[in-house]
């Protein structure tokens, strides 16, 4: 039998049932998933923690510069004789949205899932990358726009 050493765990469980859980183990609203985000060279890398989630239960979508990650943690299939002694791991659908700036290339996003971590790589758009501007010497030629701009010199 498992023993709990935290006397406040029951209060947490009751609060979850009253405010966020419709029935034990089923969330009524998407729960947040923790992320880390980094800039690595010419791309942004975002790591989502999704422990216990099967690869086929993860969706990554982009629409109008909004990246949406949805994942579902399903209960373990232990048979009909299984009786929960402690149930602290939230089950159900988790979702997280990130708003992407126009300086990111939403057309070339890549995602990989390994050991409970989803890593999404978002390249920086070509138009947002730093670039050198050539500097030339001399005056820029003046463009003639109207006949009144032309002066004639008579000798």
UniProtKB/TrEMBL annotation:
Domain SHSP intervals: 26-138
PROSITE patterns, A to Z: SHSP
Parts forming coiled coils: none
Family: Belongs to the small heat shock protein (HSP20) family.
Name this polypeptide is given: Hsp20/alpha crystallin family protein
